[in-house]
Write a structure and sequence with these properties.
Elements lengths: L1 H13 L27 E11 L5 E6 L4 E3 L5 H7 L5 E8 L5 E8 L7 E2 L17 E14 L5 E6 L4 E3 L17 E11 L2 E10 L6 E2 L10
Parallel strand pairs: 3-5, 9-11
Antiparallel strand pairs: 1-2, 1-4, 2-3, 4-5, 5-6, 7-8, 7-10, 8-9, 10-11, 11-12
Length: about 220
């Protein structure tokens, strides 16, 4: 099913089919697109907070109800204006099969508003590494939830204060106990810390600041 949904999303964003749609597209920002985004699966929740990645880009939000929603950084301001923290939002998109993470394709503050449409699928492939000149950042606290890649893989952890800690691909399974909700987690690495939020790409990790260790080597991909 997931490959079908991925192909569907790509097709929706690439261009119209030969046949015309049965009904006109919604008015407003979405009217310039040939498809009606409200035909996609919808997810409604209250924005608990917005999340930054180690580059300092806002590219995700956390629903108060639990799921994470990812979107391209260039639409972050529009999404935030539609739904500041504490306000509800409707998201149309694709939910990962194995984790509570949704790839946003359209959004609106309510059913009466014209949806804003994301003009590309944002997969955040390989994560978003910190910039070379990024500052050294340290963080520690209690894990609120794993941090998911759009495809559903665990890519790190979100602390209770909203700090995002990412880990390299292939290491999350070995770090499993540290990334679970309720676990105590500390890390150091390159990232950002400012008014927009805190995020770092872990280079050392552990249960406490005085118990940090190097990250394990990436696990070999499993053969199918």
């Amino acid at each position: 099913m997931r490959p079908i949904l991925v192909c569907l999303a790509a097709a929706l964003l690439l261009g119209p089919p030969a046949a015309a749609q049965d009904r006109p597209p919604p008015r407003g920002a979405a009217a310039e697109f040939w498809f009606d985004p409200t035909q996609l699966p919808s997810f409604t929740g209250t924005v608990e907070r917005y999340l930054v990645n180690p580059r300092g880009e806002t590219d995700a939000l956390l629903f108060r109800e639990g799921p994470q929603v990812v979107f391209p950084p260039d639409v972050a301001e529009a999404v935030r204006q539609a739904a500041p923290p504490g306000r509800p939002i409707i998201v149309w998109g694709i939910r990962a099969r194995s984790a509570p993470v949704i790839t946003m394709l359209a959004f609106a503050p309510n059913n009466e508003a014209s949806p804003g449409v994301v003009d590309r699928v944002y997969w955040r492939l390989g994560g978003r590494a910190a910039l070379e000149q990024a500052e050294r950042v340290a963080a520690n606290g209690t894990v609120k939830s794993p941090y998911f890649a759009p495809q559903g893989e665990v890519a790190g952890a979100i602390l209770e204060d909203g700090t995002v800690i990412t880990v390299p691909p292939g290491t999350a399974e070995q770090l499993g106990p540290l990334l679970r909700p309720g676990a105590k987690l500390a890390a150091e690495g390159r990232g950002v810390a400012g008014e927009g939020g805190r995020a770092l790409a872990a280079e050392r990790i552990g249960e406490a600041p005085d118990a940090l260790r190097a990250l394990p080597p990436p696990a070999e991909p499993r053969r199918r």
